[in-house]
Structures are given as structure tokens and as C-alpha cells.
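Hi U.,

Before I forget, here's the chain from the pilot set. I'm dumping it here mostly so it's searchable later in email.
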Amino acid sequence: MKSSLVILFTAISLMLSAQSLRSISVSFIPVYKGELFELNDEVDNYDITISKLKFYLSNIGLSSSDKGDWIEKDSYHLLDFDEPKGMTIMLQIPENLAANSLNFNLGVDSLTNVSGAMSGDLDPMHGMYWAWQSGYINFKIEGKSDKCPGRKNKFQFHLGGFLAPFNAMQKVSLPIIIKDEIYVVFDIGELIESVDVSKVYEIMSPKAKAVSMAQEAASLFKIVE
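Structure:
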């Protein structure tokens, strides 16, 4: 009888827990000068074409100044601008959660880099992993420009590194109003303007330039109403 009651109370608790959750979507949208940006579009005035844009978001959470933080469990997402469906992340949050900021890491933290957690979006098959010494590529952008002196005018910026002084992961916090759909724009135009591809056109390992470019990229996320 006692075991039956335990099972009953457990089932009721699980039902109540499930009923107390709500789903919200967080969609990431690339823009250039306020307009929707698509891969392989030529960016006017810069003679630049972007062919690849992928990055990791991790530890996605919501916080309130007076009620603490909520963080998604096992929170690792690989966003690939070549796959529009993958640009929306669904979160299951407490029904009555009060929050005024959306938080996430642009990249993969040091602990994950050394923990051997290499499945799902963290699987090396996605082309976002160097080796155990240098870890994950947090942010990858590739393209071409006539101004670029690289082979076939191509540039490649693979931003990563988890060891000091070249830890490229960046923390992002954006003010929000909680609602069912949240939209975050990423201004690819500003990132392009921040790089002179006639002088810098390849980053393929952890270094100071990777960190500074990752910092610039992290500053380009904005909430839109």
C-alpha cells in the first residue's frame, strides 16, 4: 500500500511539473543594414560574399534582477545559417518565470572542451572541432572578396580557443520582455565592416585576433520587438 501511494504521489508531482511549463521560441536572424541577410548574397559596397556562418550558443538562460536565474539543462546549440530551421531554439521554461534578460555564451566553455562530451550538436562531424589541444570552433565565417589576397580570394575566420590567454568564448546578456516568441538579430554587416580582409583574411587557430573578433561578434546580437 505504501509503495502504491509513493507511486501515486510521484505521478501527481510529475503531472503538476509538466503543467507548470511553457514553451517559448528564440529565433536568430542575420541582418545587414536592417535587411534580412542570406548566405551567398553579395554585400554592397564591400564586394564581399559570405558562404558560411555557423556558431555555438551554450548555457542559454533567463534571469531576473530580483528572482535569480533559470538555465537550460545540457544547453548546447549549433546554429547554422545554411539551415534556417535550426536558427530557432525552443525553450521549456517555468510557467510563471519572471525574467528581464536573455543570457547565453557565444561558444563552448572550458569545462565542456575538456569533458569529452562530443555528441549531438557537439559532435565533431559538424566541422566545428579542431582537436583536444585547441577544442571547439566557437564561431565560423567564410566567404570571398576581390580585396582578399588569399587563395581564390577566400577568407576564413574560425574563432575558438579555451585556454588563457586565448579563451574566445564570450558571454552575452540582452534585455527582454518574456513572451512566446523572441527574436534576436545578428548584424553581419557590422562584423564585416570591422575586418579589413585585404590585411586579415585567415584565422585558423586560437590567438589574440580570434579573441578580439569574437568580442566584436558577441556585441552584435540585439533583441527586436
